[in-house]
Design goal:
The chain has helices at residues 2-13, 21-33, 167-182; strands at 49-51, 56-58, 71-73, 78-80, 85-86, 91-93, 96-97, 105-106, 111-113, 118-119, 124-125, 130-131, 135-137, 142-143, 152-155, 160-164. It is α/β, with parallel strands linked by helices. The longest helix has 16 residues, at 167-182. Keywords: Transferase.
Length: 185
C-alpha cells in the first residue's frame, strides 16, 4: 500500500517515477527555500548549477541538472532536444570571457544539442558547438567542434568521431519513445 501511495502522490505532483521522492524533497529545500537555482522550472540536483536558465530551452523528457555536479552556463543560449540525458559532472558552456580581462564576457554562438543525445559523465561541451540527434558523447570528452549530422559516438580531448550509429535503428527507437511518452508511460 505504501508504494502505491507514493506512486499516486508522484503522479499527482507531476514527478518522474525514476527519481526518488527524497530528490524532490531536497529540490524543495535548495530551490524553493534556499533559492539555489530558483529560476529553473524543473527539479535540479542540489550540487548542480544552471546559470541564466532563461536562455536554456529544453525539449520534452529532458531534465538537465538532475544529475550531480552539472554546470550549465547558458549566457549565450543553449537548446537541448527531446529525451536527451545529461550525465553527472557535465559542463555545457555557451559563453566565455576575454583572455586578458576575465570579467568581460564574450559573445559566442549558442550551443545546440539534438534529441536523444547522451552526454557521459564529466563531458564538457564548449561554446558554439552543435550536436545532432543521437549523438553520444563519451565520459570525460571535451567537445570543441560540431557534429551536426548526429547518429554517432564521439569521445576524447578534443572529441573525435569514434563510431556511426545505425540511423534506422535510432529513428525506430525515437518513434517508440514518443509513443510511450504520448501514452503516459
Amino acid at each position: 500500500m505504501r508504494k502505491g501511495l507514493k506512486h499516486v502522490v508522484a503522479r499527482a505532483l507531476g514527478l518522474r517515477k525514476e527519481m526518488p521522492l527524497s530528490f524532490y524533497a531536497l529540490d524543495v529545500l535548495f530551490r524553493r527555500i534556499l533559492r539555489q537555482n530558483a529560476e529553473v522550472k524543473w527539479a535540479v540536483h542540489h550540487t548542480s548549477t544552471i546559470r541564466n536558465p532563461r536562455q536554456l530551452v529544453v525539449g520534452q523528457g529532458t531534465f538537465p541538472g538532475d544529475s550531480p555536479g552539472v554546470y550549465i552556463n547558458a549566457d549565450n543560449g543553449i537548446t537541448i532536444g527531446d529525451f536527451t540525458n545529461v550525465g553527472p559532472q557535465v559542463g555545457l558552456i555557451s559563453a566565455n570571457h576575454d583572455l586578458v580581462v576575465n570579467t568581460k564576457g564574450e559573445a559566442a554562438p549558442p550551443l545546440r544539442i539534438g534529441s536523444f543525445c547522451w552526454l557521459g559523465m564529466g563531458a564538457v561541451v564548449l561554446p558554439g558547438v552543435e550536436l545532432g540527434d543521437f549523438t553520444v558523447v563519451g565520459a570525460g570528452a571535451v567537445v570543441t567542434r560540431s557534429f551536426p549530422a548526429g547518429y554517432c559516438v564521439v569521445a576524447g580531448n578534443p572529441a573525435r568521431l569514434l563510431k556511426q550509429l545505425n540511423q534506422d535503428e535510432c529513428d525506430a527507437q525515437a518513434r517508440r519513445e514518443y509513443e510511450r511518452h504520448a501514452a503516459g508511460k
